[in-house]
Every structure is written in structure tokens, then in C-alpha cells.
Specification:
Two copies of one chain form a homodimer. With 352 residues, chain A is of the alpha+beta class. In chain A, 30% of the residues lie in helices and 23% in strands. In chain A, strands 9-11-8-12-10-13-14 form a seven-stranded mixed β-sheet. In chain A, helix 3 packs parallel to helix 4. The longest helix of chain A has 18 residues. Chains A and B meet through helix 2, strand 1, strand 2, helix 3 and strand 5 of A and helix 2, strand 1, strand 2, helix 3 and strand 5 of B. Strand 2 of chain A pairs antiparallel with strand 1 of chain B.
Amino acid sequence: MKSDKIKMNLQCPMPKLDFDIITLGHGSGGLLTNKLLETGVFDLLKNDLLDEHMDGARFSLDGPLAFSTDSYVITPVFFPGGNIGELAVNGTINDLAMCGARPRYLSLALIIEEGLSMRAFWDIIVSVKFAAEAAGVLVVTGDTKVVERGKGDHIFINTSGIGQVHPDARLGANCVKAGDKIILSGPVATHGIAIMSVREGLEFETDIESDTCALHFAVETLLDRFGPAVHLMRDPTRGGVAMVLNEIARDCRLGVDILEKNIPVLDAVQGGCELLGLDPLYVANEGVFIAIVEAAKADEILQTLRTDPCGAHAAIIGEVVEAHPRQVVLQSKIGGKRVVNMPLGEQLPRIC
Amino acid sequence: MKSDKIKMNLQCPMPKLDFDIITLGHGSGGLLTNKLLETGVFDLLKNDLLDEHMDGARFSLDGPLAFSTDSYVITPVFFPGGNIGELAVNGTINDLAMCGARPRYLSLALIIEEGLSMRAFWDIIVSVKFAAEAAGVLVVTGDTKVVERGKGDHIFINTSGIGQVHPDARLGANCVKAGDKIILSGPVATHGIAIMSVREGLEFETDIESDTCALHFAVETLLDRFGPAVHLMRDPTRGGVAMVLNEIARDCRLGVDILEKNIPVLDAVQGGCELLGLDPLYVANEGVFIAIVEAAKADEILQTLRTDPCGAHAAIIGEVVEAHPRQVVLQSKIGGKRVVNMPLGEQLPRIC
């Protein structure tokens, strides 16, 4: 789900408050914290499990579970195509999806820097609400802390999530074998370039928007139809496709061959990468995933994925090979070959 | 478990590293992040479920579950009696215990400020390890982010946790009735005064140590023996006993009467409170809980709780009443009565 600020503001107008910025007292656990949360926030996120007045949520969930956590420290917190709120929801949903799980319940823990405007706070929580609704997950427990000015940066959000593992999921590095095909679900580097285009000191004109979205519906369709033919999934966030393919090669002790010409990159994103001198393979993504699949089923899986909105530009970008174990080798558009190494650090910090 | 730094350092010496502070690159998700985590950290926290190379942990857990989250932003991160690492483990364990659950799995998400020394990082993670082991919980998934100097404060830690609800737990505001007794498990205000004694600009000489500890073993014993006779539990962290009793009165729509003379406070803590002009009822705790229990079983529950190390000073401090609904009334040592209001904010921010 992408931020549609006008629609959201109409549906969820900010309540009238007697404060317009968040102060240290709002993180005290006292009356002010209650006021901040009860003035609409609990209403926004309302569901039967949300522990408004308990120390945790209680529920029953059958079958094997997946559990994941991520903190989001992205700067700026509002960026083209979204904000930290929906990013935090989608990001943890996607981590669960990569475990083959249907995300069910999320926690939401906020670390707010004193002075954050109530307007920004509200827009972020509204965005959490819409992202969670669109994905069919419930925010069931949370925490709010406030730190002094200069000890944080607007807002950091941690989401942890619990999901139910698909009964036909057989995912793991040990399931991958030479010959498997590598499917990429969509164009790369979009999120990273969208953030960089508005990063202080680096601004450039473009209409690229972050690709942040929830991938679990697409994943569920693949597991429903192809189950054990999907051998491993990973979403290439920090460190990009280069990082994830290197991790896969390392964990499977096999080689990875990819074809540059098959890797989808939006024209504007390619332009942004050239402007900044970046290789799109190393730039962060928030709305694509890599699936390592049984070769015999690869075309069918690809066609199925392409029917999903998040997979319209999916492509088979390469395969797993016996040769050069633990190494990722790219064949360039002009036919040359080069090793794609793990990135040492990130081109820019705080991309998610 | 309290920090025993000498013992921990002997058992878990810091590995030799080619960096002695944490830099932005360590939060990139690239090679440097791997290096930080694989240089001992994964070894320290090792267990079969820890998702070293997956996006989440997978496991099965029977029965109703509890799920809770908390971020820890305490300053200073090393304080008398502990550090932010064990606080983050014990705090989330206690939130699960208050839901009547046996804590099983934790997530650990770090937001590190660039420049944190590797020594401090290591000591904190070692402390996480020992606290988790002592409590019988596993850290199964995690995340590491690094923010620039001046955009964080040493380290913030989020832990989320999953526990299994005790089959005999019948806890909730709707279970509380007039006549129920209020048990406090130990002396109040110890954590808050320990932190304040070392807070910049406020230092005073004392040997008070934080009471941070895991309460779930004591809780489990009570639920094993008394099950439905325990009606509600809550740990009075931020906002102290005053906040929690007010929340209970509000949620149960009943009154709360407490006796000042019955409320245990260590002498040194009482002295600290007087020095700082604080009411111990409003000061944060990390190792005590309040249980609202069936009157007929109260003495027996108290005696049982006193056999647990964390409950040695437990006391019945008052009762739930029909009179003055939603209000907490304290009878002072000299016999006067006063209303104990909800705190507006906190005396000092970032106490946990």
C-alpha cells in the first residue's frame, strides 16, 4: 500500500489536541502517555487483541510459527512513495513472508525524539493503520518512548511480527541445488534511489517513489501452487541484490550466475544510479524478493508471479551452479563476466 | 540475574577485533554487519532456532500465547546493578509474566549510535546472554542498525517476546472484585533511585543497585498453586506503583485502598527519595510486581511468594474496595488519608 495522504487525511482526521508537539512527558508512562495513545491512536489501530491496558496481547495460533523483528531508522521519515510507518509494517511482513509465513500479528514500538510534531506522528500512525489493514495483519501490542532532542532522530520504529508458516513451505539453504533458477520479483534499486533523491545534500529531481509494499500475498500464491518447488526466498533490502545473492551462495555453498540484461531496473532509477555512481545491484529495495526455485517449474512460477501486482516485472535472472562455490558471477550486457562481491558497508546509511 | 562483570568477562572474553568502535558501516547489512555479528555474537547467543542467516525464526508452540514488546532507552546504559542488556531481557520477560505466560522466545533489535565502543557493545551482549540463560529463554531473531553520532544515545534495545500462557491463568480487570487483596512482591523505588544516583547532574553517594530481575519463576509458582485466585498482575515500571494502582482502579471501575506502613522501601532508597524530594510510590521499579488476589487465599499466596528470592519482602499493601471507584486512597503512617493520583509525566525521563 502506498501513502495516499489526501484519502487518509479525509478518513482519519487528526483529533483536536491541546499539544502540537511530542514532549518527554509523553514517554513517561503516565497520564501524558495515556493521553497521546488514547487520543485516537488506540481507535485507529483498534482490534480485539490490542492490549490497551495489558502488558501484552494474548491469542492462540496453530501450526509452526515464524517470528521476526526489525527496527526502522530511515531518514527522512517521509519519503517519496511512503513514510516510516508503512515501511515498518511492510518490512516485517516481508521478513515473515520470506520465512514462508502468513503474517498475523505485529508489535509496534516507537522511539520518538522530543519535538516531533503531532501532525507527523499522526500521519505515521495512520499510515501504519492502512498498511496493516491492507496486509490483513493486526497490531496487537506496543510501546512508546520519548528521548530528548539530539538523542534520537524524529522517530525510530521497531516492529516484530508473528506469522503462521505455510504447510507446503520447504524453505532453507539446504533445499537449494545446482540448476535451480533465480527469480527476481520486480525492478531493483527503486527504494534506495527514491530515498537518496531527497536525502539532504544529495537532492535531485525525479519522480521515483519507494517500492515499499507487502509481498506476502504473492508469496502465498506461489506456496499454494508450487509449495516445495520454491527452495528459498529472501528480500534484498540493505545491501541490495548483491548482498542477498552472496549470502545465498555462502549458505548453500554453491555458485550463483546472473545475467545483467535480465535484471529489471526502471529507466529513471537507472538514471539515478548513473548520476550517483551506484551499481543498482547494491542499492536497497523494499518491495521485491528473490526466489530460488526448481528449474522445471521456473517458467510456470514466473508466469504466476507476473499475475500479481508486485510481480508484473518479475524475471528469471540466473541460476545456481556447481562452479565457483560461494561466488556470484555476473555476465554483463556486453558479454563480459565479473564477480559481484558482498558490499562492505552501505553506500548511504539509514535507508530503512 | 545481576551483572557479575568479573565472572562474565572470564567466561566470555571479548574476541580480538580489528575495530574498537562501532561505525555506520556495521549497520549496513553488508560485510561489516556480518563481521560484527559473527565475531562472537552469534556464538554467545547460539541456539538451534537463532536465525543467523534467515529473516526470522521458525518454531512451534502449543496453547494460548502472549506477545509483548518494549524498547529500552535508559541512560546511562551501565548503571548500578546492571546494564541495558539484561534490563531489556528481564523487562520483556516480566511483561509476559504479567500476562500469566512463561516466556519462551525473544527478539533482540539494537539501534546503536556510531562510536559506541566495542567493549561496551560486548559487555551488553554478554549480559543479554546471561540474563536469557538464567531466565530460560532463547534469543531467536534480531536486527542491528547504526545511526550517526548525535542521532541516538549509545544504544537503544528493543526486545519482543513470545510466551505460553499458563493453563490456570485467569487474569484480567474483569476478574478483580471488591475485597480482593493487593500484594506487592518487594521493596519499591529501588530501580529509579539507583539510576538517579548516577544520572548526570544528580549524582549522590549510595550503594543502591537496580532491582532488575526476571519475575516469571515466582509468577509461575503462584499460578501453579493458586491459579484462578490470582486475578490480575502488573509490574510497576515507569510511573511506579501509583501509576499501576490507578490503572487497575480505572480498568476495574473499583477503588483501591493502600496502607503506607505496609509498603516496603529499603532505608537507603527512602533516603534517596527524601534527598530528591520524590514519593517512592511514583518511582520506577524493574523487579517487583503487584498481584490482585482472592482475599481468602491472600495470606497463603503471600507466604508462597516470600519463599521466592524476588519475593522475600512481599507484603499485602491494601485491598480493592467498592468505595471511591477509579480512585487510589493511601492511609499514611500517621493515619491521615490522601488520594494518590496518576502521575502526569515522569520525575526523570529514560528510566528504562
